[in-house]
Design a protein that fits this description.
Layout lengths: L1 H11 L5 E2 L10 E11 L6 E11 L5 H15 L8 E12 L6 E11 L5
Parallel strand pairs: 1-2
Antiparallel strand pairs: 2-3, 3-5, 4-5
Length: 119
Protein backbone atom coordinates (compact mmCIF):
# COMPACT_ATOMS: atom_id res chain seq x y z
CA UNK A 1 0.00 0.00 0.00
CA UNK A 2 2.94 2.33 0.66
CA UNK A 3 3.86 2.10 -3.02
CA UNK A 4 0.30 3.11 -4.00
CA UNK A 5 0.32 6.15 -1.68
CA UNK A 6 3.69 7.37 -2.95
CA UNK A 7 2.68 6.90 -6.58
CA UNK A 8 -0.66 8.68 -6.05
CA UNK A 9 1.13 11.57 -4.34
CA UNK A 10 3.50 11.88 -7.30
CA UNK A 11 0.67 11.68 -9.82
CA UNK A 12 -1.61 14.19 -8.08
CA UNK A 13 1.27 16.59 -7.43
CA UNK A 14 0.93 17.50 -11.13
CA UNK A 15 -2.23 19.39 -10.13
CA UNK A 16 -1.13 20.96 -6.82
CA UNK A 17 0.94 20.08 -3.72
CA UNK A 18 -0.08 16.68 -2.32
CA UNK A 19 0.48 15.36 1.19
CA UNK A 20 -0.31 12.45 3.50
CA UNK A 21 -0.22 14.89 6.43
CA UNK A 22 -0.52 18.65 6.21
CA UNK A 23 1.68 20.92 8.28
CA UNK A 24 0.06 23.96 9.92
CA UNK A 25 -0.04 27.08 7.74
CA UNK A 26 0.32 25.18 4.45
CA UNK A 27 -0.60 27.41 1.51
CA UNK A 28 -3.85 26.65 -0.32
CA UNK A 29 -4.77 24.86 -2.53
CA UNK A 30 -3.45 21.44 -1.58
CA UNK A 31 -4.45 17.77 -1.71
CA UNK A 32 -4.37 15.21 1.09
CA UNK A 33 -4.54 11.45 0.67
CA UNK A 34 -6.11 9.73 3.66
CA UNK A 35 -6.26 5.92 3.91
CA UNK A 36 -9.62 4.97 5.44
CA UNK A 37 -9.75 1.17 5.55
CA UNK A 38 -7.63 -1.77 4.41
CA UNK A 39 -8.89 -5.30 3.87
CA UNK A 40 -6.31 -8.02 3.33
CA UNK A 41 -7.49 -11.50 2.40
CA UNK A 42 -5.08 -14.37 2.63
CA UNK A 43 -1.31 -13.71 2.69
CA UNK A 44 -0.03 -12.80 -0.77
CA UNK A 45 -3.58 -12.25 -2.01
CA UNK A 46 -5.26 -9.04 -3.14
CA UNK A 47 -5.73 -6.08 -0.82
CA UNK A 48 -8.66 -3.66 -0.94
CA UNK A 49 -8.04 -0.13 0.30
CA UNK A 50 -10.52 2.70 0.76
CA UNK A 51 -8.95 6.16 0.37
CA UNK A 52 -10.20 9.72 0.70
CA UNK A 53 -8.55 12.25 -1.57
CA UNK A 54 -9.34 15.74 -0.32
CA UNK A 55 -8.71 18.99 -2.17
CA UNK A 56 -8.70 22.08 0.06
CA UNK A 57 -9.09 25.59 -1.35
CA UNK A 58 -9.72 29.07 0.00
CA UNK A 59 -10.44 30.72 -3.36
CA UNK A 60 -13.61 32.84 -3.21
CA UNK A 61 -16.35 30.80 -4.86
CA UNK A 62 -16.15 27.29 -6.27
CA UNK A 63 -14.39 27.92 -9.57
CA UNK A 64 -10.86 26.93 -8.44
CA UNK A 65 -11.84 23.82 -6.51
CA UNK A 66 -14.12 22.50 -9.26
CA UNK A 67 -11.37 23.03 -11.84
CA UNK A 68 -8.89 21.15 -9.63
CA UNK A 69 -11.43 18.37 -8.99
CA UNK A 70 -11.99 17.92 -12.73
CA UNK A 71 -8.24 17.57 -13.35
CA UNK A 72 -7.85 15.11 -10.47
CA UNK A 73 -10.84 13.05 -11.58
CA UNK A 74 -9.30 12.79 -15.04
CA UNK A 75 -5.97 11.62 -13.57
CA UNK A 76 -7.71 9.06 -11.35
CA UNK A 77 -9.77 7.65 -14.21
CA UNK A 78 -6.63 7.15 -16.31
CA UNK A 79 -4.48 6.00 -13.39
CA UNK A 80 -2.31 3.05 -14.39
CA UNK A 81 1.04 2.75 -12.61
CA UNK A 82 3.74 0.77 -14.38
CA UNK A 83 5.43 -0.78 -11.33
CA UNK A 84 2.44 -2.52 -9.70
CA UNK A 85 -1.11 -3.64 -10.53
CA UNK A 86 -4.03 -1.69 -9.13
CA UNK A 87 -7.57 -0.85 -10.14
CA UNK A 88 -9.25 2.32 -8.84
CA UNK A 89 -12.92 3.12 -8.61
CA UNK A 90 -14.37 6.49 -7.56
CA UNK A 91 -17.17 5.68 -5.14
CA UNK A 92 -18.29 9.17 -4.19
CA UNK A 93 -17.49 12.82 -4.81
CA UNK A 94 -18.61 15.67 -2.56
CA UNK A 95 -17.97 19.38 -2.00
CA UNK A 96 -18.44 21.12 1.36
CA UNK A 97 -17.84 24.58 2.81
CA UNK A 98 -16.22 24.39 6.24
CA UNK A 99 -17.51 26.29 9.28
CA UNK A 100 -14.93 29.07 8.76
CA UNK A 101 -16.91 29.95 5.58
CA UNK A 102 -13.66 30.35 3.63
CA UNK A 103 -12.33 26.82 3.11
CA UNK A 104 -13.91 24.47 0.60
CA UNK A 105 -13.07 20.76 0.60
CA UNK A 106 -13.79 18.49 -2.35
CA UNK A 107 -13.53 14.81 -1.41
CA UNK A 108 -13.18 11.79 -3.66
CA UNK A 109 -13.81 8.48 -1.92
CA UNK A 110 -11.91 5.73 -3.77
CA UNK A 111 -11.68 1.98 -3.65
CA UNK A 112 -8.35 0.53 -4.76
CA UNK A 113 -7.77 -3.16 -5.39
CA UNK A 114 -4.09 -4.04 -5.22
CA UNK A 115 -3.14 -7.27 -6.91
CA UNK A 116 -1.48 -9.76 -4.58
CA UNK A 117 1.76 -11.64 -5.11
CA UNK A 118 0.02 -14.93 -5.93
CA UNK A 119 -0.99 -15.49 -9.58
Amino acid sequence: MRELLIDLMTTLHQVCPTFLQVKPHTAYPYITIEPQQTLQGFPGGPCIVTLAIKISSRYAGTREILKLAKRIESLLQGYSPSTFKVSLKILKSSLILLADEQTRVHTFLLKARLKGENP
